[in-house]
Amino acid sequence: MKPLIQFKNVSKSFGKQNVLDRIDLEIDKGRITAIIGKSGVGKSVMLKHMIGLLKPDDGTIFLDGMDMTEISGQAAKVLRQKFSYMFQNMALFDSMTVYENIALPLNERHQYQKSDIQGKVFDISQKLELEDIWHKYPSQISGGMKKRVALARALITDPEIILFDEPTTGLDPIRKHAVFEMISQNQKLFNYTAVIVTHEIPDIFYIAHRIAFLDDAHILYNGPPDGIQKCTSSVVQRFIEPPYMENNKI
Amino acid sequence: MRLITNLFQFLGEKFILFVFELGHITIFFTSSFFRLFQYPWQFQKLMHQIYFIGVKSISVVCLTALFTGMVLGLQGYYTLVQFGSEGLLGSAVAVSLIRELGPVLTAIMIIGRAGSSMAAEMGIMRISDQIDALTTMDIHPKRFLISPKIGAALVSFPLLTAIFDVVGICGGYLSGVIMLGINPALYIKGMEKTVVMNDVSGGFIKSVVFAIIVSTICLYQGYYTHRRADAFGAKGVSLSTTAAVVISCVTVLIADYVLTSFLL
C-alpha cells in the first residue's frame, strides 16, 4: 500500500533536547495509525510536523509524494484543507459559543450557505450529543464536553486526514469507548486517514491498524497491533504490560 | 581594553537584536494590514472591533479630556493674568490640546483600556493553542485576528482624538469662562484666530501614526508571547501585557517628539 504521509530521516530538537532523531515512519492511506509512548517523548511534535505547524531541523516529510517542507503559498493551503487537527488541550475559542466553535471552519471557508452550515453542525452535534449546549461557552461546559466539541470541529469539514492528539484524555470510560468507536466507524464510513496520539492501552489496539511506539527520539516498534506483544524492546513491554497485573494485585 | 571590547560587543548584540525586532514588527504590521483588504471582507469583525476599541473608550477619553481641559484653563489663566493676556486663554488651551495633548493622551488612554486587553487576549490565545488551531483550520491567524484590530484602531484613534479635543476645549471653557470669569467671546474668538488647519491636520496625522504604533506593538507582544525567553504560560502573558503597555507609551512619546519636529 502506498503511504499517504512519509517521514524520512526526520530530526527535531528544542534547544539541547533531541526530540526526534532520524525518524522514518509511514502513514497508510485510509488507515488508523496510533502513535503511543510515554508522556513528553514527542508524539504531539510528530503530529505538528504532519500538519506543518513545526518544520523539521533535518529530513523530509512527504504527503502523497510531495515534499511538505518545500511547499508554500496556494499549494500549502490546498494541502492544509485536507487536514483536521484535534488538539490535546482542545484549543476551543473561549469567546465563541459551542455552535460558533463547531461552525467556524465552515464559516471561514465561505463555500457554504448559512442553512447548510446549520445542518452540518446539527448532524455532528446529534452524533456527539452536543445539541443541548450550542449556546454555551467553553468555560461553561465540562472537560469531557469540550473534548466532544473539539472532535465535532475536527470532523465538520469531512477532512481526508484527521490528526487526533489524545482525543480521549479526561473522558469517562463510556464516552472514551464511544469516541474510539466513532473514530473507527467514521473512518470506515468516510475512509479518512487517522493518526491518533494516545495512552489508552489496550483500547487503541482494537481500532488502530498500525501502531508506532516512540521513545527517546526513536521509533521502537512500527507494525500491526497484534505484533507489539512480540516486540523484544523492554521499554515497549513495560509500557503495554498492565500494571495492575503485577503480583496479581490491584 | 577587554572591558571596552566587551562593552562594544554587548552594545552591538543589542543593536542587531533591536534592528531584527524592528524588521519583524514591520513585517507583522504590513502583512496584517494588507490582509484587511483581502476578499471576503471582514466588515462585521471590523465593526465589532471599532465598538470595542472606539465606542467603549469614549467615556474614559471624555473624562480625561474634560479634566485636562479644566487644568489647562486654570493653569493658563493664572499664568496669562500676570501679563494681562487672559484673553489668550482660549487659543492656548485649543492649540495645546489639538497639537499635542489630544493625540498623545488619547493614545495613552487607549493603550491602558484596549491595548493591554488586546495583548492579553492574543497571549492567552497563543498559549492555549487557539492561534495554531486557526492555522490547522486553514484560517490565516493574522487576517482573522490582527487585521480587524489594526483597521479598527486606524478608524478609532482619529475620531477619539477629535472627541478629546472638543471635550478638552469645553473643559477649558468651564474653568476659564464659567469659574474664573473670562469673557466667553474672547475665549472663542481667540481660539478661532489662532487655530489653523495645519494644527488640526497635524493632530490627525499624529493620531493615525499612534494608531499604527499602539495596535502593532500591543498585538505583536501578545501574538509572539511564546517566544519570550524570560517566562512561559500565564506569566509570559502577564509580562507581554506589561511590555505592550510600557513599550507603546514610550514609543508614542518618542514618536510625538519626532512628528512635532517635522510638522512644526
Query: How would a textbook summarize the main sheet of chain B?
Result: none
Find the biggest chain interface: A-B, 23 and 13 residues
The N- to C-terminal Cα distance of chain A equals: 43 Å
Number of domains of chain A: 2
- Which geometry of chain A do the CA atoms define? globular
What is the C-level CATH assignment of the largest domain in chain A? Alpha Beta
Q: Helical segment tally of chain A?
A: 8
Ends distance of chain B: 45 Å
**What Rg of chain B, in angstroms, do the CA atoms define?**
22 Å
Per the CATH scheme, the topology name of the largest domain in chain A is: Rossmann fold
Known CATH architecture of the largest domain in chain A: 3-Layer(aba) Sandwich
Determine Rg of chain A (CA atoms, Å). 19 Å
Description:
Chain A is built from 8 helices and 10 strands. Chain A has helices at residues 43-51, 73-80, 98-109, 114-127, 143-155, 173-190, 203-207, 234-240, and strands at residues 3-14, 17-28, 32-36, 58-63, 66-67, 83-86, 161-165, 193-197, 210-215, 218-223. In chain A, the strands form 2 sheets. A 6-stranded mixed sheet of chain A has the order 6-7-8-3-9-10, sandwiched between helices. In chain A, strand 4 (58-63) and strand 5 (66-67) form a beta hairpin. In chain A, helix 3 crosses helix 4 (114-127) and helix 3 (98-109) packs parallel to helix 5 (143-155). By secondary structure, chain B is mainly α. Chain B is 84% helix and 0% strand. Chain B has helices at residues 2-35, 43-53, 58-80, 89-127, 130-136, 141-179, 184-194, 197-223, 233-263. In chain B, helix 4 runs parallel beside helix 8 (197-223) and helix 4 runs antiparallel to helix 9. The mean pLDDT of chain B is 94. The interface between A and B is medium-sized, with 23 and 13 residues.
Short description:
The complex is a heterodimer of chains A (about 250) and B (about 260). With about 250 residues, chain A is α/β, with parallel strands linked by helices. Chain A folds into two domains: about 1-80 and about 165-170 and about 180-250, Rossmann fold, CATH 3.40.50; about 90-160, no CATH class.
